[in-house]
Amino acid sequence: MAGNSFGQLFRLTTFGESHGKALGGVIDGCPAGLELDLELIQKDLDRRKPGQSAIVTQRKEPDTVEFYSGLFEGKTTGTPIGFAIHNTNQKSHDYSHIKDSYRPSHADYVYDQKYGFRDYRGGGRSSARETASRVVAGAIAKQFLGDMRINAFVSQVGELKLDKPYQELDFSNIESNAVRCPDTEMAQKMEDYIKAIKKEGDTIGGVVTCVIQNVPIGLGEPVFDKLHARLGEAMLSINAVKGFEYGSGFAGVAMKGSQHNDAYNSDGTTQTNRSGGVQGGISNGMDIYFNVAFKPVATVLQAYDTINKEGEKVTTQGKGRHDPCVVPRAVPIVEAMAALVLADFTLLARTNKI
Amino acid sequence: MAGNSFGQLFRLTTFGESHGKALGGVIDGCPAGLELDLELIQKDLDRRKPGQSAIVTQRKEPDTVEFYSGLFEGKTTGTPIGFAIHNTNQKSHDYSHIKDSYRPSHADYVYDQKYGFRDYRGGGRSSARETASRVVAGAIAKQFLGDMRINAFVSQVGELKLDKPYQELDFSNIESNAVRCPDTEMAQKMEDYIKAIKKEGDTIGGVVTCVIQNVPIGLGEPVFDKLHARLGEAMLSINAVKGFEYGSGFAGVAMKGSQHNDAYNSDGTTQTNRSGGVQGGISNGMDIYFNVAFKPVATVLQAYDTINKEGEKVTTQGKGRHDPCVVPRAVPIVEAMAALVLADFTLLARTNKI
Amino acid sequence: MAGNSFGQLFRLTTFGESHGKALGGVIDGCPAGLELDLELIQKDLDRRKPGQSAIVTQRKEPDTVEFYSGLFEGKTTGTPIGFAIHNTNQKSHDYSHIKDSYRPSHADYVYDQKYGFRDYRGGGRSSARETASRVVAGAIAKQFLGDMRINAFVSQVGELKLDKPYQELDFSNIESNAVRCPDTEMAQKMEDYIKAIKKEGDTIGGVVTCVIQNVPIGLGEPVFDKLHARLGEAMLSINAVKGFEYGSGFAGVAMKGSQHNDAYNSDGTTQTNRSGGVQGGISNGMDIYFNVAFKPVATVLQAYDTINKEGEKVTTQGKGRHDPCVVPRAVPIVEAMAALVLADFTLLARTNKI
Amino acid sequence: MAGNSFGQLFRLTTFGESHGKALGGVIDGCPAGLELDLELIQKDLDRRKPGQSAIVTQRKEPDTVEFYSGLFEGKTTGTPIGFAIHNTNQKSHDYSHIKDSYRPSHADYVYDQKYGFRDYRGGGRSSARETASRVVAGAIAKQFLGDMRINAFVSQVGELKLDKPYQELDFSNIESNAVRCPDTEMAQKMEDYIKAIKKEGDTIGGVVTCVIQNVPIGLGEPVFDKLHARLGEAMLSINAVKGFEYGSGFAGVAMKGSQHNDAYNSDGTTQTNRSGGVQGGISNGMDIYFNVAFKPVATVLQAYDTINKEGEKVTTQGKGRHDPCVVPRAVPIVEAMAALVLADFTLLARTNKI
């Protein structure tokens, strides 16, 4: 299990390097009979793709997905869905500044150590370009999930933090601005800030919040495969993620049990949902909500000191077209991973009772 | 994959309910030839067991582990290690306050919904008593890991937060106090606070920090099975955990890339280790450190309103012997889960190169 | 995945050596709400246990199973079912003839080579005693399978071969004789033959045939997890098995397509069922039938030459209480493994369609 | 685990239907640093491809593999190897004879029943065309296996059976004739027979024998993942396979233990190797050999009766370009699956000892 598959029953396996011929994947276990809207899939890919706005990387990659199998007359057949996204932008780059030296806070060094050598063209397999395949699979999972609604959005950029509870936000605003923050005023501040950071040749971190609504009761499997444990794993597997919290999260630590406990309504819903829609690892039908922390992108367009393969100090100039802040493009990736987790547990939940 | 196994190559499967005959598990994949110090295993169990101090639950459970297989003449044989911890404290309790009503922020309701009924004696399978089996397996994994050092400790209780960097702490103090905080002054404050909370019949949350030292380079598998993603999943699978962050974590969000990046020394180590010992999902040889957030225990010894199976409001009095704060006993569990993740990736790393 | 688990959704993990404290296992994924008849489980164990007749080993092992978890008020709870069978017959044996030499056609040599040493008390983990745990799990799987009927029986011992098609046999005769052959006349011949073999201190091979009736259409997953591929794997994992064939099997090789093809009836059943109830890896609703070949037991009660750890020739006298022919006791094991495969695919089939 | 992956550490996932855009797969877990000879891969594909001789189907498919990832400067990188084989022969066929009726002994009926509908263009996913992806992966596995030698060949066609022990055969003859039988005299008889069968519009079954040499001691994992159990599963997952036997196989049933047991030489090898190179599920260093039984191809070019979706009798004329006997083209598939099993266990064996 070399680490390139996710999910047990609704399972995605991905392949591809940032500068190879193609990336893609295989979705195994998607049930038969699902009418697929291919435009919705491409739409999610477009939300992730470079060049979509002034605050993301200006690389040109159309990211068009081609399906090879598993679909027939517009529906899934129950057989594996193979797909590829061809890299159209494979012109011979100059990698000399990467090939023999290690970029700080990148995976260059550990890949060389682990595998004995590496594909040094861009990040190779460690590039976030791999997440395009996740978005394809997640967009299919979303369609499988039917009424469940997954909305991710940017809730923090640097110190700029959206402090309203999600219930007061209008999710229909998310796609109306380049940052993908549902509060348009805050969105403008964040956008301005990212532009300023970009001008410095620097980068900044952020937080993506995700809210999942209309979740049926009973998803998640005790004890190791708790719903939130798998959500956490899924989010932490996204490039640049440093933390995950759900429900009351780290703030819940300072509360007393008598304050924190969610009192029941007579229909089994709760009044406060500090639990974040998950109890004992199993969905309780309330909204699931969680935060995902992204560090600042490691590639800065400034001069920096580092070492080469011989351990000698070298000074390098960061270059290329990179994201000053990763969270606007991370929004569809967070949604995709959440959808994959939910699809997997939805299938698994069919096996709980005789 | 019903969720009761953890790990791929060094794999633990657990069984058992809080009030059944026995809990236990099977460790499959522990390599042959490991000389096991059984006392070290029992010692970790003793760090988790109830009744060990005035600030934990006063239930009496000796938690003695019995090994059934996989050991011969003091060494592991490479065959599965089966073990059980018999419940000695199975006297007929009065469960009437649990049987027909749902305790807030417990798993009672979702188990009934998911499975159609539940073992209502205590928490059944959702009880943290299950983690005793994890501690057994983790203690074996620790011995397999040789020189790697895993130290977990309590870094926060309610608002009381240990703000020193871990490098300034003396880990040898951890076991010298009931809270398991390496700063003895802070430990005393935390202990006093927990006692006060207990007197109120209330509970409080906390944070466990874990530091792993002497980690070889190369553990962790791109892209889904990143080392920190599996650590996060492992921690989030522990009862009452609401959040996980590693390295710079949520605080890293507000930093710029130029500040956050870890500059290399000539030997491949880094000067700042904001990465938390993991780069691109692969250990880089630096210390791994992470925080785990625990919510306040849901069982409060106060009167509370809730609903019964018919959805009618009922008022109940919390009773029994419960932990006012879970983090002191959670320390060995966090270590155990970390050890299981590392053992698994240690074996997997043997397969990376031809 | 060290090899001691079987199944994906209905999953058995076993532990235990022939002469350890206990063997047992964990069944994970058995759906909740199944009323378990514990006597049926013990009854299958009794069909496997030593000492049940004059033609099997005369060792005394009561093989009583103790359940630790996963059951509540007579029903499965959906949580893992942990169980153990304690070895009551652990008296200090004399292993000197095994400890330092390798019994021919046993696993002694390969265990030493693979693991560096071995538990030399009896066969250790390689002993067929491990299959007792499979019988427990299989007996639970059978109850889960409801109307499906699994009947295994002995169809060959040495050259004595039952050549009737299974449709002409009365399965209710199977348990009426010590050999477990449904043709009572042939059963007597086989019994006499096994007794003669035993008198020589020798052993003999045999074939177990298994017929599964009332199978729903749709079990089995293309392309690698074909129903018959998993049945084959299951059977080949039983000690002493050398071959597996289903439907027309090896005899089908010599047929022409025009003869071999199964013509359809108007209700989708077929007229000939040479396919053996499986088409393209998926059950077609017809009877599944297959043969399992068992080699003669390797332990003969005669003098034989072999080598010791130093590679020196030694002459040894086979001793102990062993089966002259393994197939009578293998019948419930074949059934158990078939039940585990079917239970797993039954759960998996719930996920095929949206 | 929807059934389209094979292997645990060296893992192949395949996708693709017989008449879709492309088939292909992802190989995850192939260790880094393996210099790949791409011509050897294409050569194995050519051994499987249609149109290679007068006795196989005359369809025209070049079966050229395109690699998308996982290779860099001629070596594997340790990241997933994605590949595709584009279908060049996708002209609009006439499927009316298949679309609404069920071909006998094909998977048409069960796919419709299992999934609710099916891709009726040819066999869809149930077509043996899927095995092209296995051959690609197997050819890579072979190169990973280094000195191990896997030779499969045709040992029986209809009643024509090669009765010599494999030690008397010259494997270098295998590729010298269209049947892939190493005995040139028998090969000629088989070829003539297949031609005669083809003239009748009929088909015939056969047996492929496989011999694996230079196997290290210690491959295979007790108890469920025995080496021969996984080999059996692998072979039974190939289209049209009805049986598997290794070592003495079904013939061993009639032997006495005293005859069947393999006496040791002083170096740990055995004198007779009736065990077939596997003892207790673990390779013992001797040659592994096994037989795989293939039924006659179900598509006959004759008129036949069958039913349509409404269960009405219809008479159909078989047409198209099909194999009169599948075994010559099955030889590289058997080798590929054997290579995948061995590669997986080779990696797993690295984790057996501390």
TrEMBL record, chains A, B, C, D:
FMN binds at residues 125-127, 239-240, 280, 295-299, 321. It catalyses: 5-O-(1-carboxyvinyl)-3-phosphoshikimate = chorismate + phosphate. Transmembrane segments: none annotated. The keyword Heme does not apply. InterPro entries: Chorismate_synth, Chorismate_synth_AroC_sf, Chorismate_synthase_CS. Pathway: Metabolic intermediate biosynthesis; chorismate biosynthesis; chorismate from D-erythrose 4-phosphate and phosphoenolpyruvate: step 7/7. Keywords: Amino-acid biosynthesis, Aromatic amino acid biosynthesis, FAD, Flavoprotein, FMN, Lyase, NADP. GO terms for molecular function: chorismate synthase activity; FMN binding. Its EC number is 4.2.3.5. It is an enzyme of class 4 (lyase). It comes from the Bacteria. One of its GO terms (biological process) is chorismate biosynthetic process. It holds the Pfam family Chorismate_synt. CDD domains: Chorismate_synthase. GO terms for cellular component: cytosol. NADP(+) binds at residue 48. Its cofactor is FMNH2. Reduced FMN (FMNH(2)). NCBIfam families: aroC, PRK05382.1. Belongs to the chorismate synthase family. Homotetramer. This reaction introduces a second double bond into the aromatic ring system. PANTHER family: CHORISMATE SYNTHASE. This is Chorismate synthase.
